[in-house]
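Encode chain A's predicted structure.
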Amino acid sequence: MKTLAKYLKPQLPAVVLGILLIVAQAWCDLKLPDYTSTIVDTGIAASGIEERCPVMLPAAEYDRLAGISPEAAAAYRIFDESCPDHEALARQFPESGNAYWLAGGVTQALEEAFEPLAAQAGGSERYGSARTAYIARCYEQLGVDIQGNQMRYIIGRGLRMLGIVLLSVGASILISYLSANVGARLSRDMRRDVYAKVLSFSPSEFDKFSTASLITRSTNDIQQVQMIVIMGMRMVAYAPIMAVGGVIKVIRTNVSMTWIIALAVAVIAVVLALLLRIAMPRFNLRQKLVDRLNLVSREVLTGLPVIRAFGTEQREIGRFGKANTDLMQTALFVNRAMGMMTPVMNLVMNGTTLMIVWFGAAQILRGSIQVGTMMAFITYATQIISAFLMLGMMSISLPRAMVSVRRINEVLHTESAVRDPAQPEMPDPAKSGTVEFDHVDFAYPGAEEKVLHDITFTALPGQTTALIGATGCGKSTIVNLIPRFFDVTGGSIRVSGVDVRRMEQKTLRAMIGLVPQKSVLFSGTIGSNIAFSDEEMDQGRVEAAADIAQAREFIDTRPEGYDAVISQGGANVSGGQKQRLCIARALAKQAPIYIFDDSFSALDYKTDRKLRQALAEQTGQSAVLIVAQRISTVMNADKIIVLEDGRIVGMGTHKSLMESCETYREIALSQLSKEELANG
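Encoded structure for chain A:
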């Protein structure tokens, strides 16, 4: 909940406004049944006559009242100009010249005094009860158009009802707009922070979260949170107001049938409790199965060439089918359980209405209530049950969203193993481009054995330092420690005279042009990929980098040139072209340090030689570190470091290592003849 509160805080004005609108909408919805009841009971059944006693009496009826109850007759006065409402009553009762007006208030004794008169007058089909018929006949004697008065009453109440409906609809529309806006902004901010957090992760954190899981958390989980916020803004405030307000209205309307609503609410509570017990454990499982399906899909799509080459399509279809079926079965179970709720709730609601009509009809026959009152009771009961149903929906949806919130929190609250120092140091300009390894040890997180042991060397600006050795000897690990993809577990690495752990990562990596072992291109154009480090990079710099990387020869063959489209992952270029574009991207950065992690493996020998010659000419003031498998790539390096089992077993030039290092000599002779090595 703290996470939701944090992201809702900037939207607080919209949330408060939404709650106020919800209160207004609930008030409107609770008022409507009252108007329905008065239109039916007073407007239709009582011909628009609201009075319990006549406000004006003809002289003859006054005399009859005085004969029955002189005390009741004392409440009336002769109608003349001394009456405070003379003009209004004169307009309402055109033939009031010989009449009496009600000067006192209506009391129970006064109502009882009229009962014999009403009983003598009797009821009628037109006017309903005897009392209403008596009052109507009195008013007709005074020139009142009872039918016109009835229509005016119904139209007046109907217009008020329409106004309240329009106000409720307007509030509902605004609430929908505000809730959608708040939900969209919250998901945007949450997705932005999750994305920024993922970008700050070191490889250690990516071992904890799979790529597929991170994608699910950034999309599906955040969408679940967005939906609960939208539902919450509409229901969390509205449902309790409707429930409490409806109960109050019901008690005021008819206490004797409140047990029906209590029974309906109890049934709803039992159904929701059963659903929560059955469905909740599957919600968390469902999100994990979505992760699994995304993982399998990603692996199959990215590894499609290998799958086809080994003819394992059917096996992968089966693997995907299992993940898909597991998700389908869990989703079906949850959806079926949730699907049962609608018919059960409809049964409860319709059953409640039937019981109210059954018991209410008996009370109407006894004269305890009127038809309009029963209609209002039914409406209030429906509102109360609907409110509890909304609360039930929230009680089911909220835990499901909380699963997603927890998964998002796991990402947001995971601290990267590689963090910036509290007081970072700036690089020493006098040592710009210098890379120093000082007795470095390293073990991967969770591993028991070290992969690097006591690595000590210095790479100087203007020199090429090469690392060579058998596969798995630690070459790539060494160069990945320089930009702090991992932190050393022993010793230190200094770049430009400062321990890399004492520098901001942004400052450190700004000094490094890296070509990773796995070539990665982004969707866009050739030009945008080369200028990846600086969107404002001028065209001359882009072309110069492409020229050094030997990429011009295939770029110039494309009609669009540098505007040629690169598809996702560089799928529309060959391995060698992809590698050269990655090299050009690093060179365009014009950094004091260049790292080439086995970046020439896809190049032919001719292109490899031309590229290294161009590199030597253009990177003369920078430190160049090359990881390679081929002796021909490192023969002309100023310093060659030979690795074996994570240890340095040789260091020097090609010539000195051929004489002093057995490991280097074995690698060299396995690739080139003695004559080629001698002419190297």
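Residues 517-590 form a domain with the Rossmann fold fold (CATH 3.40.50.300).
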